[in-house]
Amino acid sequence: MHKNTIEKIKNRYEKRNQIIDFLKHGQEKRDELDPIKDRDQIRHINMKLDMASATLINELDSMLDEVESQL
Questions:
Q1: pTM
Q2: Helix extents (H) in the chain
Q3: Looking at residues 28-52, what average pLDDT do you find?
């Protein structure tokens, strides 16, 4: 693989880890909330978690495409 490709993969790997950490933290925060009293806040957290999950999937797809193009 090219050096540039390896660097892109490292950057995406780091971004992936940041997204996973964000997801874990958001899930922990959501789990601490009262399902009835904090309903609006839970919806907001769930929306952000959904967006982070979609971003993670896109990042992993891009990384896979990059690797496949180098084979």
A1: 0.77
A2: 3-32, 39-70
A3: 95
Q: C-alpha angle 56/59/64, rounded to 5°? A: 125
State yes or no: pLDDT of 57 exceeds 70: yes
pLDDT score recorded for residue 1: 58
Buried b (16+ CB within 10 A) or exposed e, 6-18: eebbeebeeeeee
Length of the chain: 71
- The b-or-e profile of 24-50 (16+ CB within 10 A means b, else e) is eeeeeebeeeeeeeeeeebeebeeebe
Whole-angstrom Cα distance, residue 42 to residue 52? Answer: 15
